[in-house]
Amino acid sequence: MQFGRTTLSKFVIEQTRAQHGELGALLIDVAAAVKTISAMVAKGALAGHHGALDSTNVQGEVQKKLDVLTNEAILRHCEWGGQLAGMASEEMDDPYRIPEQYPRGRYLLVFDPLDGSSNSDVNVSVGTIFSIFARSTAGHAELDDYLRPGAEQLVAGYAIYGPSTMMVLTLGTGTHGFTLDRESGNFILTHADIRVPADTNEFAINTSNERFWEPPVQRYVTECKAGKTGVRGTDFNMRWIASMVAEVHRILMRGGIFMYPKDSKDPSKPGRLRLLYEANPMAMLIEQAGGAASTGRGRIVDVQPNALHQRVPVILGSKNEVERLERYHRDFDDGSDRPFVSPLFAERSLFRDEPRT
Ligand code: AHG
Ligand code: MN
Ligand code: MN
């Protein structure tokens, strides 16, 4: 035990006194669920939890055994305490009703129980993402109660299950990181008030989708790849872990930009990541750390949701790079990037399929 250090419990109790302890109690239950998941994930192949099930979730994705087990872990840890009006998750088609034997409160918990779950079979970092809202009164939540813009989140956080397990949280006053001390079982505040540098030379995107991106994203990535020889005049580095939690964590630790932009791969999906339990919590964490989080055409947290599992384009991280991408989207939308199709700048002609008239 590290005497004198701040535990997650102490931190959240101090930060939530105004909510009469209810929000603090809920967060302590979320932390307990995270410890259960951390132990489950760390057993790896020894537990027989690897592999896929026959089932698919509402989004048509094949569920892994761990997707279902980690979802259950959060439901069981958080349903009984009387703080919640309901829960919603990537792995459940509809919101979860708090069983009648338990009291209901006014908070709503939405989560992705295991983000990047395909990485668990190959022993690469995975995570849990969550977000907390409030209704004005206690009682069972209806679907509409969940469809609130991210700007109304009270708490956002994730756990990362990597070489160490960490929880990173914001309650609206900065973004703070806690590391699990496996010997004492406590989360200890190790990264107070994390700040994302405004500039970066590191970008993360799945470039196998390049042909499906919109021109402003193609322009941005082309310029990064051109490095010193291009308009940016500096070399860039690229990373792609395929676990959003791990990418966001890297960005919080040392800056960078992460993109899962709008693409034309499947026209019914305006992006890959889900607004309520992936994009919104990460956006709040990044903004609270001084970074920016955008769809390319506005703040993610300002998007009005119209469905529980709605997807959204995500561009987040170091502020100056996110703002550059927003500018490229504006230039594209109003046609002012059109000079780039001039023969003088022939190498940038990919930003338009054909010159505008
Ligand atoms: P999930 O495992 O919860 O479905 O989410 C995985 C997400 C995200 O973590 C990651 O950035 C992205 O999907 C990876 O997508 P690709 O497989 O297209 O790279
Ligand atoms: Mn996910
Ligand atoms: Mn998931």
Task: Report on this structure.
- This protein has helices at 8-15, 22-42, 65-78, 143-146, 215-226, 244-254, 275-288, 319-334; strands at 52-56, 62-64, 84-89, 107-115, 126-134, 155-161, 165-170, 175-181, 186-191, 202-204, 237-238, 257-260, 273-274, 292-294, 311-312, 314-317.
- With 357 residues, it is α+β, with helices and mostly antiparallel strands.
- It has two domains: 8-191, Fructose-1,6-Bisphosphatase, subunit A, domain 1 (Fructose-1,6-Bisphosphatase, Chain A, domain 1), CATH 3.30.540; 202-334, D-Maltodextrin-Binding Protein, domain 2.
- It has a seven-stranded mixed sheet, with helices on both faces. A five-stranded mixed sheet has the order 11-10-12-16-14, sandwiched between helices. It has a two-stranded antiparallel sheet with strand order 1-2.
- Helix 1 (8-15) runs antiparallel to helix 2 (22-42).
- The longest helix has 21 residues, at 22-42.
- It is globular and about 65 Å long.
Summarize the model shown:
With 357 residues, the chain is an alpha+beta fold. The protein has 2 domains: 8-191, Fructose-1,6-Bisphosphatase, Chain A, domain 1, CATH 3.30.540; 202-334, D-Maltodextrin-Binding Protein, domain 2 (3-Layer(aba) Sandwich). The chain has helices spanning 8-15, 22-42, 65-78, 143-146, 215-226, 244-254, 275-288, 319-334; strands at residues 52-56, 62-64, 84-89, 107-115, 126-134, 155-161, 165-170, 175-181, 186-191, 202-204, 237-238, 257-260, 273-274, 292-294, 311-312, 314-317.
